[in-house]
Amino acid sequence: MDPHQIQSHDALESLFEKPGEAAIRKEVDRLVPVYRRLIEASPFYVMATNGAGGLDCSPRGDPAGFVQVLDDRHIALPERRGNNRIDSLRNLIDDPRVGLLFLVPGKSETLRVNGRARITTDPALLEQTAMKGKPPQCVIVVEIETVFFQCARALLRARLWDPESRALSEGTPTAGEMLAGVPDSSIDGAAYDDGLDERQARTLY
Question: pTM value?
Fold first, then answer.
């Protein structure tokens, strides 16, 4: 047992100051024009889901504008080919609640969207979100419940967009090394890495 564990809302709230007016006012229940501009500029977001198999948090990316704003309460997220685990999609079948975090390179504020999602193969949406002539496998349509921007502190502390931060990747394991380094792996890491760039370029869409 941790004698310092926080186990109540009152105990938790005692550690922090009351949120300021800006922190409260920025949350709305629809995609207002200023928030829409952030989504339309974003080439990358992270999706959090929950289902029978547990929690999942995974990245999605494409050229800016790939997330389609259908109206001020709905956005469409194309689901491209990947590793075919489809953990997020399985979770959405079990539990439609979803959390999204949108990032724009060079900008330290992020945009948070919470809502409920459905998975569709609507031909019009598949065509609308096609990339290089190839439609996605399916489209996730999110009905927005809350949306607000997150202040810049986290990214500023991380120095995420600082060019010098690129040096942090030096010496980290390659994809092949990670696959070869997990227990009971029979994957040749060097061979996996050798064809990785070509394989990824060929299977992006």
Answer: 0.95
